[in-house]
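Try this one yourself first.
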């Protein structure tokens, strides 16, 4: 049997122990350590009619755990996420986490790491496209790395964007204003966050809307069939920073469309890990309009999962499961 029964950490427990500052710091540390592609291999997606199942795995260097995130979309179009943590030393399963909140937190916190690296230090105006969970997480995370003075929000539903603006004006003590179009939201923004794909998968952000010197963050197009930013954004940006270069270039609808439209972007692409682990300050300093394009990764999931798992267990907020796994290589051989 395994050395001890695994623990389960619920979404409620994760919310209690989660700290934006801690998660941003952990992800900055993770991306500042040089690593190879092998520790964070491409995701796998199994598909059938009306169904898909995605698996992400990683072995974070210098960490206690390795693991995987698993989630799938059923015919009713609902999602649940689970992360499995495995001890790097022993190979034993240490725990399971409800990964719904972790997914939102790690995406926004990784964007905050990129914004802190790429945006002008005095950037204070945010244009936000979207009012859902990702938009909310991004606003909270970016407020930790830049002193925001004004936020303009657009989403297609007037009631939702007005409620969003009212809520975050009170929560963050920042002027948040709902506007009537995406173009108005980004017109004078120092930072633009696209976090709301259109229902018909048409681009929602165009290059000629952006002010010179703006930083664009795009997190909503992660599959070939998904669209968020127009090819003109890819063409106008002179530095394209990716969390997972190969997947961003080859698996997102935005970059595939840009390639079909004849936009030459390969020379502009660099990984976030390379910039942070190889002192990319010079390359960042000459960029006049950077783009951070993110698809998410197990490396991010596992970095955050280890942090919140250890906190939840130490604070007595986890549930030790009444079960144990047979451990291959110890005990079993003697019984044969």
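Now uncover the answer:
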């Amino acid at each position: 049997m395994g050395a001890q029964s695994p623990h389960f950490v619920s979404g409620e427990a994760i919310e209690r122990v989660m700290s934006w500052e801690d998660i941003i710091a952990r992800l900055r540390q993770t991306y500042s350590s040089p690593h190879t592609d092998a520790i964070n291999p491409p995701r796998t997606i199994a598909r059938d009619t009306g169904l898909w199942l995605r698996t992400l795995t990683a072995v974070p260097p210098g960490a206690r755990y390795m693991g995987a995130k698993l989630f799938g979309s059923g015919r009713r179009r609902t999602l649940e996420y689970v992360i499995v943590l495995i001890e790097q030393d022993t190979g034993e399963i240490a725990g399971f986490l409800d990964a719904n909140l972790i997914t939102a937190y790690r995406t926004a916190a990784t964007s905050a790491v990129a914004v802190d690296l790429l945006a002008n230090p005095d950037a204070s105006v945010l244009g936000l496209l979207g009012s859902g969970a990702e938009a909310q997480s991004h606003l909270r995370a970016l407020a930790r790395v830049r002193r925001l003075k004004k936020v303009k929000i657009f989403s297609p539903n007037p009631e939702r964007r007005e409620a969003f603006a009212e809520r975050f004006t009170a929560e963050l003590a920042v002027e948040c204003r709902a506007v009537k179009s995406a173009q108005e939201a980004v017109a004078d923004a120092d930072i633009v966050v696209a976090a709301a794909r259109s229902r018909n998968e048409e681009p929602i952000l165009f290059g000629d809307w952006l002010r010179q010197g703006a930083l664009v963050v795009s997190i909503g197009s992660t599959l070939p069939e998904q669209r968020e930013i127009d090819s003109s954004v890819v063409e106008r940006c002179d530095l394209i920073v990716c969390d997972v270069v190969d997947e961003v270039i080859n698996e997102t609808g935005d970059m595939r469309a840009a390639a079909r439209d004849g936009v030459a972007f390969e020379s502009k692409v660099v990984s976030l890990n390379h910039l942070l682990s190889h002192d990319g300050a010079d390359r960042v300093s000459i960029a006049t309009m950077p783009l951070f394009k993110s698809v998410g990764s197990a490396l991010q999931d596992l970095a955050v999962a280890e942090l919140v798992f250890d906190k939840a267990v130490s604070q007595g907020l986890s549930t030790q499961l009444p079960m144990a796994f047979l451990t291959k290589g110890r005990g079993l051989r003697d019984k044969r």
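Discussion: The first helix runs from residue 11 to 17. The chain has two domains: 7-102+298-335, 112-293.
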